[in-house]
């Protein structure tokens, strides 16, 4: 476990700075607990649920064009559960009473998240398969070529068709394979969706 004593010490300092916190834990984005200070709460369950909520939050932020995930806040009848990004491969989740000052909670937890992220990212590399999967706005979009089509083929829905053979080298008649390789947006079979 990467720097577990240092991470646990940071969690304790966070709880000392915000007395209304009832628990805090650091976990990998895969749901594995790195360190926790959560009396009376099963840390493994909270970490697993955090990973699930994180997946939804990341997709929500990406789909709506809000950028990379930063934090998630859930308010229940008796208090708050807040999750903050902590470096590239970890998150910080805190539990707080309903009477907590939410502004102070955000301020202190964000700072702790940065420090925990530095500790985790400076540790030994995580085993293969524990990092967050790469994200893309459009999973069908590729940076080279077109999915399922040979290079230069605009697809069946394009307004520009490629002639089977070039009829003229001057470019005066029809499209050639060279002409279809431009970055004209109309030739892409799946245009990039615009953020709503």
Brief overview:
It contains three helices and five strands; from the N terminus they run αββαβββα.
Radius of gyration equals 24 Å
Order of helices and strands: HEEHEEEH
Task: Indicate the overall shape.
Answer: globular
State the distance separating the first and last CA atoms: 41 Å
Structural class: alpha+beta
Oligomer: single chain
The tally of helices reads: 3
As a percent range, the share of helical residues equals: 25-40%
Strand content: 15-25%
Q: Give the averaged pLDDT, no decimals.
A: 76
In what order do the strands lie side by side in the largest sheet? 2-1-5-4-3
Q: What's the total number of strands?
A: 5
| Low-pLDDT regions | 128-134, 138-147, 160-167, 173-191
Q: Largest sheet at a glance?
A: 5 strands, antiparallel
Description:
- This protein has a 5-stranded antiparallel beta sheet with strand order 2-1-5-4-3, with helices on both faces.
- Helix 1 (4-17) packs antiparallel against helix 3.
- It is built from 3 helices and 5 strands; from the N terminus they run αββαβββα.
- A hairpin with a 2-residue loop joins strand 3 (71-76) and strand 4.
- It is globular.
- It starts with a helix and ends in a 74-residue tail after the last helix.
- The relative contact order is 0.14.
- It is α+β, with helices and mostly antiparallel strands and 196 residues long.
């Amino acid at each position: 476990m990467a720097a577990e004593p240092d991470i646990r010490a940071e969690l304790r300092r966070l709880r000392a700075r915000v007395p209304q916190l009832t628990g805090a834990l650091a976990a990998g984005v895969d749901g594995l607990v790195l360190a926790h200070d959560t009396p009376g709460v099963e840390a493994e369950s909270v970490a697993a649920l955090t990973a699930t909520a994180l997946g939804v939050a990341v997709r929500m932020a990406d789909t709506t064009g809000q950028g990379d995930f930063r934090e998630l806040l859930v308010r229940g009848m008796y208090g708050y559960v807040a999750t903050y990004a902590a470096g590239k491969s970890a998150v910080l989740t805190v539990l707080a009473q309903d009477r907590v000052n939410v502004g102070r909670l955000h301020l202190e937890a964000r700072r702790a998240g940065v420090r925990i992220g530095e500790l985790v990212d400076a540790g030994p590399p995580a085993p293969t398969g524990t990092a967050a999967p790469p994200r893309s706005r459009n999973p069908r979009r590729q940076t080279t070529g077109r999915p399922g089509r040979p290079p230069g083929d605009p697809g069946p829905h394009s307004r520009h068709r490629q002639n089977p053979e070039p009829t003229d080298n001057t470019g005066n008649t029809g499209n050639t394979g060279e002409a279809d390789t431009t970055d004209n947006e109309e030739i892409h079979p799946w245009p990039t969706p615009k953020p709503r």
